[in-house]
Amino acid sequence: MASPTRPETPELAQARARIEALEHALEQALADAHACRVALQRSQSALSAIADGIVVTDLEGRITSINPVAAHLTGWTEHESLGKPLREVVRSVDARGDAVDLLQSGFCNGSDDIVSLLRRDGHVILVDGAVALVHDDARRQVGSIVTFRNVTAATRMSRELSWHANHDALTGLLNRRVFDARLERAVASAAELGCRHALLYFDLDHFKAVNDTGGHVAGDELLRQLSVLLRRQLREHDTLARMGGDEFAMLLENCTEPRAAAVATKILATMQGFEFGWEGKHYRIGASVGQVGFSGAGLSAQDILEAADRMCYVAKETGRNRIAAEELRGYAARKLRPGREPATQRLS
Question: C-alpha dihedral over 177, 180, 185, 188, to 10 degrees?
Answer without folding.
Answer: -150
